[in-house]
């Protein structure tokens, strides 16, 4: 029996209109444009403003555009998966809220929490649903409203993050030549001490004390995370290339999580991969966590050709990291 392969048949993104520039941040914390650009590559990021707007609203925008451009009716969607660390609420799941707002009535839904690797972890899950033969249309949304958990008095983190959403549709491949070919994912709880949101969960439920101690914001010890990101992202890309007998010349694009331009450049050097074939848009959006990879795919969609080999790779809180090999289908 031939194996059913899953393939990405459409991608769409959403970025909120309001921009937070490095110049804006200079007025908020002791930082400067030169430091931010040279240490991170970021020039500006987009922020979702407005009362009552949350991650699900950005996810809805990305998913609605995706359904329209792929000619998919909400009734056809069978599974909705949302990758996020900034759900609207701890429960119900944000995927459920997105489905409800879009009129998706025939699907089951759930969220996946794997920080900046969330999109890859969710993509692998979506792929398995398709490969099982049980489902034919899976909607995957990567979204984060990072501004809701960023401390805008902490210069070491507030310069990094932005808000955005990306969505992809997964369907069975029409041929054996295109689709998601391989996935390697890893987790290591050793990273938990360096990158976390301390309060709001069952360990430290919200109290006046946790709020006063700013424990509902992101904490990051940047240097160990930086080193681990370079080492593990480079390593897992090498791992997937070796496993699939690929040389850098065989790969059309590397699509890395956008956390820091220096991380991406160092990885490219170590892989001997030219920057011209690495998708980079961190300068415009900063780190949008689960949204970075689908946002890249959306922006580069018109340049992709059927059969192009792409390696998607990410590293994030947990630690979590991985690489997925895709042969583009359209
Ligand atoms: N403006 C000016 N100076 C600053 C700023 C700022 N915004 N932030 C920090 N500094 C200072 C520090 O205080 C420090 O000063 P000191 O030398 O006097 O002590 C100096 O700059 C260097 O600080 P470092 O933290 O060592 O700076 P570094 O070069 O490591 O850059 C950064 C920090 C950008 C956070 C980097 O460590 C990084 O990118 N880390 C990895 C991020 C990542 O990949 N995260 C995972 C994904 S996120 C997720 O999963 C949710």
Taking all residues together, what is the mean pLDDT?
A: 97
CATH class of the largest domain: Alpha Beta
Tally of contiguous helical segments: 11
Helix percentage: 25-40%
Task: Tell the overall outline.
Answer: globular
Second CATH tier, the architecture of the largest domain: 3-Layer(aba) Sandwich
- Rg over CA atoms, rounded to whole Å, is 19 Å
What structural category arises from helix and sheet content? alpha/beta
Number of strands: 13
Total tally of structural domains: 2
CATH fold type of the largest domain: Peroxisomal Thiolase, Chain A, domain 1
Ranges where pLDDT stays below 50 over 5 or more residues in a row are none
Beta-strand content estimate = 15-25%
The SSE string, one letter per element, is EEHHEHEHEHEHEEEHEHEHHHEE
Please describe what this structure looks like:
The chain folds into two domains: 5-176, Peroxisomal Thiolase, Chain A, domain 1 (3-Layer(aba) Sandwich), CATH 3.40.47; 180-327, Thiolase/Chalcone synthase (Peroxisomal Thiolase, Chain A, domain 1), CATH 3.40.47.10. Helices cover 32% and strands 24% of the residues. The chain contains eleven helices and 13 strands. Strands 1-7-6-4-5 form a five-stranded mixed beta sheet, sandwiched between helices. A four-stranded mixed beta sheet has the order 8-13-12-11, sandwiched between helices.
Short description, anyone?
32% of the residues lie in helices and 24% in strands. The chain is an alpha/beta fold.
């Amino acid at each position: 029996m031939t194996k059913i392969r899953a393939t990405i048949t459409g991608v769409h993104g959403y970025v909120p209109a309001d921009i937070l520039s490095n110049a804006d941040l200079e007025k908020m914390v002791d930082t400067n444009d030169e430091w931010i650009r040279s240490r991170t590559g970021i020039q500006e990021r987009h922020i979702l403003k407005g009362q009552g707007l949350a991650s699900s609203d950005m996810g809805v925008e990305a998913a609605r555009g995706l359904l329209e451009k792929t000619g998919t009716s909400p009734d056809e969607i069978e599974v909705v998966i949302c990758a996020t660390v900034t759900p609207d609420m701890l429960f119900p799941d944000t995927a459920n809220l997105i489905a409800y707002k879009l009129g998706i009535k025939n699907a089951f839904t759930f969220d996946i929490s794997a920080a900046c690797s969330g999109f890859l972890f969710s993509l692998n899950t979506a792929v398995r649903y398709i490969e099982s033969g049980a489902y034919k249309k899976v909607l995957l949304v990567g979204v984060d409203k990072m501004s809701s958990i960023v401390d805008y008095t902490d210069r070491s983190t507030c310069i990094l993050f932005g808000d955005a959403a990306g969505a992809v549709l997964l369907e069975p491949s029409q041929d054996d030549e295109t689709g998601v070919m391989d996935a390697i994912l890893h987790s290591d709880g050793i990273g938990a001490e360096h990158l976390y949101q301390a309060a709001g969960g069952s360990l430290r439920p919200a109290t006046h004390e946790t709020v006063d101690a700013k424990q509902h914001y992101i904490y990051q010890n940047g240097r160990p995370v930086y080193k681990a990101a370079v080492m593990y992202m480079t390593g897992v890309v090498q791992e997937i290339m070796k496993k699939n007998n690929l040389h850098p010349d065989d790969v059309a694009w590397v699509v890395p999580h956008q956390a820091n331009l220096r991380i991406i450049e160092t990885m490219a050097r170590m892989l001997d991969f030219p920057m011209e074939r690495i998708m980079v848009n961190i300068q415009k959006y900063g780190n949008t966590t689960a949204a970075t990879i689908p946002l890249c795919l959306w922006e580069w969609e018109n340049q992709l050709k059927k059969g192009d080999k792409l390696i998607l790779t990410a590293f994030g809180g947990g630690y979590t990291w991985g690489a997925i090999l895709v042969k583009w289908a359209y």
